[in-house]
Amino acid sequence: MKISFKNDYSEGCHPKILEALMATNLEQQDGYGLDEYSLKAKQIIVDKLQSPASKVFFVSGGTQANLVAISSFLKPYQSVISAETGHIFDNETGAIEATGHKVNPARSVNGKLTKETVQEVLDAHQIIPHQLMPKVVYISNATEIGTVYNASELKELYEYCQSKHLYLYMDGARLGQAIMSASNDLKFDDLAKYTDAFYLGATKNGGLIGEAIVINNPALHEGFDFVLKQKGALLSKGRLLGLQFLTLFEGDLFFELAKVANDHARMISKAFKENGCKFWAETQSNQIFPILDNDKIEVLAKDFDFYVWRKLDNDQSAIRIITSWATKEENLEKFVVKVNELK
Amino acid sequence: MKISFKNDYSEGCHPKILEALMATNLEQQDGYGLDEYSLKAKQIIVDKLQSPASKVFFVSGGTQANLVAISSFLKPYQSVISAETGHIFDNETGAIEATGHKVNPARSVNGKLTKETVQEVLDAHQIIPHQLMPKVVYISNATEIGTVYNASELKELYEYCQSKHLYLYMDGARLGQAIMSASNDLKFDDLAKYTDAFYLGATKNGGLIGEAIVINNPALHEGFDFVLKQKGALLSKGRLLGLQFLTLFEGDLFFELAKVANDHARMISKAFKENGCKFWAETQSNQIFPILDNDKIEVLAKDFDFYVWRKLDNDQSAIRIITSWATKEENLEKFVVKVNELK
Amino acid sequence: MKISFKNDYSEGCHPKILEALMATNLEQQDGYGLDEYSLKAKQIIVDKLQSPASKVFFVSGGTQANLVAISSFLKPYQSVISAETGHIFDNETGAIEATGHKVNPARSVNGKLTKETVQEVLDAHQIIPHQLMPKVVYISNATEIGTVYNASELKELYEYCQSKHLYLYMDGARLGQAIMSASNDLKFDDLAKYTDAFYLGATKNGGLIGEAIVINNPALHEGFDFVLKQKGALLSKGRLLGLQFLTLFEGDLFFELAKVANDHARMISKAFKENGCKFWAETQSNQIFPILDNDKIEVLAKDFDFYVWRKLDNDQSAIRIITSWATKEENLEKFVVKVNELK
Amino acid sequence: MKISFKNDYSEGCHPKILEALMATNLEQQDGYGLDEYSLKAKQIIVDKLQSPASKVFFVSGGTQANLVAISSFLKPYQSVISAETGHIFDNETGAIEATGHKVNPARSVNGKLTKETVQEVLDAHQIIPHQLMPKVVYISNATEIGTVYNASELKELYEYCQSKHLYLYMDGARLGQAIMSASNDLKFDDLAKYTDAFYLGATKNGGLIGEAIVINNPALHEGFDFVLKQKGALLSKGRLLGLQFLTLFEGDLFFELAKVANDHARMISKAFKENGCKFWAETQSNQIFPILDNDKIEVLAKDFDFYVWRKLDNDQSAIRIITSWATKEENLEKFVVKVNELK
């Protein structure tokens, strides 16, 4: 059995979550998110955001979070702008379009949107009513290529969106890792200040399943619980989600685990760098994209699982390595040894 | 804190499931349902159904199972027939309509559809192309009022559907309880013989979350995995679902738990009956609908949680009591004592 | 060739419309409803309604008008209430559901909704968020069985809707005939006072094609032109619609033609009545539903085309006879002669 | 009043159509496309295509034709490939996405798709089931920039689609003009051989409104009439459409009018060319895209209406000039005189 660096959802969850599930298992709790653990976890998240007007909704996965949120925020004639590399544009099987809405691709810079690239889309949508009205700007943080938005980038984009009457929505499948990026100055409560809504991923950062949708803009609260139920996202045993987020957020576990994932990534990135390797995208969170000769990729692939991400030419490709809180130290070391042998 | 008989999802899951999660927690497994536990659980279900051509897909909830399945089976101009008491008609926030399809209400007999009541809908849909073409017949087993389909009822309905080129789809949120109903002769492998597709509920019968969609008719297999992903139903950590179904189905745990739930219900039903109580619907599975004077309902409500289901007149209402595998014996006894005191 | 009383769209249009088309045919006009005829016709309709805040949009058919309007007015989790006999519930091939919204059937009284029957639907939708939020009340005037809303009925229903935060929308495929019903006191400008939106049908009252959607409530104006285009309802040669409505509304032609249709219907209704015939629904506009012995239906069917509407028992059925402005006097006379011979 | 070259729908229809409407106006005809004129027109089209298995459906506009056809052809998890310049990608207000389907943009070559550019999209959709399955290839002929597919280009693309199990669908808003292009060898009956379905536009070539959807592939026939009604595309007075297509196709009027439009365009194109003008796209049908200095555009704009299509740099832009069968000779001459004065 190979050691896998394919993704950050290969293992189960942090042991404390299983302990919490066991400790409370036979208690009777109300269903549909009205259990005491969900209520408490939501309050803690709102408190840590210092945003009492925000509302929190737990769902089971990222595609679900995106489709529920975006379809709830848009009117029939409105669309969502995404980086051409954005997860909703190309990796969620048309989930947004299946709710009736177009995803407008925008040029991305290091996987990120800027006010300039969003403005390009607006400029190209001036023929009324023959073109859709873009209304939501979708960004991922960390992005699909592991880069992160710093505080000033996010603030600038949000202020631009405000000025254009656009909603800014952040896909936070790896938001913990983005926040804890060594190169980042974005703070957790900035998310309430500089987005209209975002989701916070637990699946890839310590949870078994679960994402927390946080809606900061009160104009987007109305009817959200109906849409959750309508799209099949309202779990009857909401306690499963509540207990996970409670475990991750009542202390700092969520942030600590993300930091571990990033530290692991930096260790691997450093090994490649010291061996003269170039990168397809900068290592800012827990994804690493080294560029390797194909024969060296084959050597690595004997013992390790990972994706070959982009064929760059006939000789070289970028591979994707992902680390997590659960990556075992001994496996990291084995990998680094093998990287050193590639020279 | 009152003792709750409001539903069968107030507690967590059977302890063996938590044990299995703990035992395998830090193993690396492939994502999106390709983990070894999901694969094994699916094979066991297919084996127990004696239906090698059937395919199994795990999802996280019942509304999700229904909307994924029905929207996958229908063409844009086709509709689904449901009992007017059916869960998809009135309790899933328009989930089916949100996928673009009408739910045609049919008259129900004890919560069940018959070939006669389905035929009434077909007879009323003869104006082509001004009316939709009904194509799927949706039934719940156990039904929303706790009644069950026996083998001959199901067989007759299925053969009728075959003759009319209709697909028969069964919502099995409480399918274990239906199968294990004392009054029932339906066997597990009849589900493969007499339905085109069905789902098998774990959430209300020992699981933490999870429903298994089983598609028997190969004509309905194509593209199903795409639709799962598109509707946000494909969990990255599919192991969570796989391990639960494996635990429930590798032995007979699933059936044993359902039997316990039904036994609990019969105990309560007997108490009401011995006290001269009438019932709004016959107790065939784990739901009990005794009819009580309003003042007696108030007495019961002091110590117990349950729903007042239907106001019958100014003096009387039917209440709904639900039991499960997790109902504690001591709570059952307390409840029976209180029922005896109502006289 | 039989004489047809099957519907009020068997003939073309009033000759003045063809004259207007010919007179303006080779003029250059702007497209998409910005031609001078559309603009002028819209202004005239708004003026006659004495409702300067209303906006008018022309579309080509009734199902299109309904689906554009209702899908534009509803949020994803909202539904529309219709009489169980309503056209959108059963005769438009699931057009509303195809836009993602459920149609909630309500009990009807003489084909009409009342505040009591709407309230019944609201009462049955109290389980939040497991049931949809009804938001639009759809009525047809004249109804599908030819009855009409008088001023006080409409006012009462509208005020009730206001009090419940519901929008009242009227399908006016035969609105001219309803307004001109001999038994009616509803005035044209009442439509602006007592509905949030309605559509006004030309196809069945003098036009070649065309319905005018009038939106009185400014809260429903936003984005409507986008939705028109999105649903394929915005004609590039909008002049075709504009010229028709201009011809029908610059004088009183629209109302005169409706009166003729109703007069024709009364003439036929009278003939049946004088021959001792009973009616399945009262003749208030241009639809007549006499109840006849099946052998007499066969006699009539030798020379005339009409629908057998409802089988009442083994011996009797209700037939539907429809008249229009275009029904020829000689055909009316032939029909009356034949009715008199039925005795 | 300026002379307009903005589009080919500024005028009404060919006078023969109005004559046909007048001559048949008060005849009684069956509704919903069952009138004798629609039936006859459909038969003539099928005969001219030499394709007895093809079925023809009349609708009122191009966006409507596209959304009805594409949503009928696709399963929920399938998408349609369009040139990035394709009308459905950017000029129909998300009409396709509103039916639940993504439009995948493909690189275009002179506004056209080739097997290479379609293959690029397929290559980028290999992650199953996380990406959609492209199933329909949408092309426009003439394209949105006036270029046309010749017989070998269309044949090659069709055969490629066959080999990849893709349906080829052609938007023929200006199909007459494409067929009659002086540079083209495509014959009318090639459309039945080399497409699975297409639509044939009358609105921009002699009709008042109306497009004829022709479905050659019998696998795509099923249920199409239901979808027409569901999307609001089935006119009750179908005679309006039938009579137009009968007038255009019982002789060669449709083709003659298209030839006139193209001849007019060549006359204008020649004038620009002789004045040393370059073109943004080659003039192959009735659209001309000359590149002009901005001050010269201003001069032209004093007397003529047209669109400035693309700003090329600070000094120059491409304008769009469209001619039609209805363009008056005197206006053409005035325009050519003005072009000659630009030097």
Characterise this structure.
The structure is a homotetramer of 343-residue chains. Chain A is α/β, with parallel strands linked by helices and 343 residues long. The first copy, chain A, folds into two domains: 3-9 and 254-341, Aspartate Aminotransferase, domain 1 (Alpha-Beta Complex), CATH 3.90.1150.10; 15-252, Type I PLP-dependent aspartate aminotransferase-like (Major domain) (Aspartate Aminotransferase, domain 2, 3-Layer(aba) Sandwich), CATH 3.40.640. The first copy, chain A, is built from 13 helices and 14 strands. Chain A has a seven-stranded mixed beta sheet with strand order 2-8-7-6-5-3-4, with helices on both faces. In chain A, strands 9, 10, 11, 13 and 14 form a five-stranded antiparallel beta sheet that branches. In chain A, a hairpin with a 4-residue loop joins strand 13 and strand 14 (316-322). The longest helix of chain A has 22 residues, at 253-274. At the C-D interface, strand 1, helix 1, helix 3 and helix 9 of C face strand 1, helix 1, helix 3 and helix 9 of D.
Shape verdict of chain A: globular
DSSP strand tally of chain A: 14
Q: List segments of chain A where confidence is low: pLDDT < 50 over at least 5 consecutive residues.
A: none
**Largest interface, per-chain counts?**
C-D, 55 and 54 residues
Approximately how much beta-strand content do the residues of chain A carry?
Answer: 15-25%
Mean pLDDT of chain A: 97
Strand/helix succession of chain A: EHHEHEHEHEHEHHEEHHHEEEHEEEH
According to CATH, the homologous superfamily of the largest domain in chain A is: Type I PLP-dependent aspartate aminotransferase-like (Major domain)
Question: How many helices of chain A in DSSP terms?
Answer: 13
CATH topology-level name of the largest domain in chain A? Aspartate Aminotransferase, domain 2
GO biological process, one term (chains A, B, C, D): amino acid metabolic process
Enzyme class (chains A, B, C, D): lyase
Family (chains A, B, C, D): Belongs to the threonine aldolase family.
Cofactor (chains A, B, C, D): pyridoxal 5'-phosphate
